[in-house]
Amino acid sequence: MSESSKIPVLVMLFFVMVVQILALAITPAISASGNRVFEDPTSIANPIAYMLLILVFTALLLLAMKLKRGWIISGFILLSIAVSIYYVMVAFMSPLLAIAPTLAIMLLLHFYPEWYIIDAFGILVCAGISSLFGVSMTILPALLLLVVLAVYDAISVYKTRHMISLAEGAIKIKAPMLFVVPKSRDYSFRIDQEISSSSDETRKRGAYFLGLGDAIIPTILVISAGWSLPAGGFYGLSLPVLGAMLGTYLGFLLLMTTSRDRPQAGLPFLNSGVILGFLVGCLAAGVRPI
Q1: 180 has which bridge partners?
Q2: Cys bridge to 285: 153, 184, 221, 239, which one at CB 3.0-4.6 A?
Q3: Cα within 13 Å of Cα(168), Cβ side
C-alpha cells in the first residue's frame, strides 16, 4: 500500500468504525420503538427474504440502466432511502414529525450531492439500517445472511460483474449508495463522477469508493450479538460484540491489501472477519452463539 493511499484507507476504516459505534448507540431506541424488519427474529427464512429483496432491487436497477432510464433508477433509490431514513427517525420522534427531517435529507441529497454530504448521510443511514436489521435477527439468521451475502458479492463482482455495473450507474447519477473519499482537496463528486472497471481508468479516478453495504452487513452481526447474547464486558459491550467489531476492522485492512487497480468484493473479507472475530469473542466469554 503506497503512502498516498494510506490516508483514504484509514478514513474509510474510520467510517466503518463510526457506523458500528453509532449503530450500537441507537440500538436501544430502535429496539424500544418496536420496529422490526422481520416479525420473527429467530426465523431462518429471514436471510432468504433479505436476499430476495436484494435480488429484486438489483434486477430493477440493472433493467432501468439497460433501458437508459436514469430517472427511474434515481427515483427508486431515493424512495428506498427515504423509507429507511423515516423508519430510523420514528424511533426518536413521532411519525408525523419524522417526515420533516426525512424530506430535508432527501432534498439535500438530490440538489447538492457533494461527497461530504453523501459520506455524512452514509454514516447515519448505515447505522440506522444496521440497527434495524440487527434487532430483527438473532445470531443464526444473521450468520446465514452474512455467509450467503459474502458468496453473492464475490460472484457479482468477479464472475457476473453486475455489481460493478450497478456501482457505475449509481455514481453516474450521483446516487448516495457509496462512501466517497477524495484523493485530492479539489475533488467534487458532483462534477467528477466517473468510475470504470478498466485498470487504466481506475487509476485515474479522483476518489476511492466503498459501498454502504460493506459497512451495513457486518454491523448487522455486531448488533445482533449485542441484544441477543448476554451483555457485560468492556463498557457494557460483551466479548462477542467486541470480537465482531475487531474482526470487521481486520477484515477491512486485509481487503485494503488487495489490488486497488480494479473493483474488489468487500463482503468476503469483511464478513469473514466479523464472523471469525465474533466466534473468538464467544469462545473467550464461554458463550454458545447458537
Answers
A1: 209
A2: 239
A3: 18
SS (HEC) of 101-129: HHHHHHHHHHHCCCHHHHHHHHHHHHHHH
Average pLDDT over residues 202-231: 85
**Type of residue at 117:** I
> 188 pLDDT exceeds 90?
no
Q: At what angle do helices 267-285 and 139-154 cross, to 10 degrees?
A: 150
In sequence order, what are the residues at sequence separation of 6 or more whose Cβ sits closer than 8 angstroms to the Cβ of residue 82?
102, 106
Output the nine-digit C-alpha cell for 177.
449508495
Residue 100, amino acid: A
Point out the least confidently predicted range of 55-64, 81-90, 192-201: 192-201
Question: How far is residue 84's CA from residue 107's CA, in Å, rounded to a whole number?
Answer: 15
- Any residues with CB less than 8 A from the CB of 231 and at least 6 apart, and which? 237, 238
Burial class of residue 116 in the structure, from the number of CB atoms within 10 Å of its CB (0-12 exposed, 13-18 middle, 19+ buried): exposed
2-39 pLDDT, tens per residue?
A: 555 688 889 999 999 999 999 999 999 888 887 788 88
Residue range 72-95: mean pLDDT, rounded: 82
Q: What is the pTM of this model?
A: 0.88
